[in-house]
């Protein structure tokens, strides 16, 4: 629970600090006073540094009063957290110029997210290398050519996301086990007069229905891909242009 504050103060073991270990706790208090808080003069820290003394708890209790800690000596976790907070405030005061221009991690992540939200925005679509690369990818993936190379690149991105990611490839590689089909439950609609031919016709009809379903799935995927391009607010599909 103290890791972030300990890390901010450059404590040597922020992840493994255990305030319930008496020796570790006493050493920590000495380090905190010597390195960060510095409430006492150096010559007045002797009793606090004598961590093996039976009188150390009294010295620590006096120290808590001197720094105006509002907690009791028995409330160890609360005391440690309060002292860490005091040390952080003092550390910032000593190094205000160092920290005043620093950016919180959350703000940095927000800026990075905003920059990465539209990775194509800063591309030079007129660059010959860019055009050649997009055309090579389009030919390799058998994607329909378009006058606007940025539109082609977005189509390539959609295809890669849907078909060439590791999850998509793994899913496509899985063997499909068909379910048993009771032919007698499927009405053929006509009678050839031969039971064997009737059964073959039923099988052909079922296979045809499965092919139609696969075709419909591909049509739906194509519609989604086109809609994803047209729905881009920067795309004017009537002019075949991106942006203004």
UniProtKB/TrEMBL annotation:
<dbReference type="Pfam" id="PF10036">
    <property type="entry name" value="RLL"/>
</dbReference>
<dbReference type="InterPro" id="IPR019265">
    <property type="entry name" value="RTRAF"/>
</dbReference>
<protein>
    <recommendedName>
        <fullName>RNA transcription, translation and transport factor protein</fullName>
    </recommendedName>
</protein>
<comment type="similarity">
    <text>Belongs to the RTRAF family.</text>
</comment>
């Amino acid at each position: 629970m103290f890791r972030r504050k300990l890390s901010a103060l450059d404590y040597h073991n922020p992840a493994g600090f255990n305030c319930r270990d008496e020796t570790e706790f006493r050493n920590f208090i000495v380090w905190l006073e010597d390195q960060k808080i510095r409430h006492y003069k150096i010559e007045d820290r002797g009793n606090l540094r004598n961590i093996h003394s039976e009188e150390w708890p009294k010295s620590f209790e006096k120290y808590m009063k001197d720094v105006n800690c509002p907690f009791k000596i028995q409330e160890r976790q609360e005391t440690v957290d309060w002292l860490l907070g005091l040390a952080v405030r003092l550390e910032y005061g000593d190094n205000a110029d160092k920290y005043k221009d620093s950016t919180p991690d959350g703000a940095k992540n927000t800026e990075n997210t905003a920059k990465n939200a539209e990775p194509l925005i800063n591309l030079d679509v007129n660059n010959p290398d860019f055009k050649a690369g997009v055309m090579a990818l389009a030919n390799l993936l058998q994607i329909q050519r378009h006058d606007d190379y940025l539109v082609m690149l977005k189509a390539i991105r959609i295809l890669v996301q849907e078909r060439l990611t590791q999850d998509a490839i793994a899913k496509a590689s899985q063997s499909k086990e068909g379910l048993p089909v009771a032919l007698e439950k499927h009405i053929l609609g006509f009678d050839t007069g031969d039971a064997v031919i009737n059964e073959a016709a039923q099988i052909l009809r079922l296979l045809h229905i499965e092919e139609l379903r696969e075709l419909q799935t591909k049509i739906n995927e194509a519609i989604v891909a086109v809609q994803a391009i047209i729905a881009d607010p920067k795309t004017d599909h009537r002019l075949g242009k991106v942006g203004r």
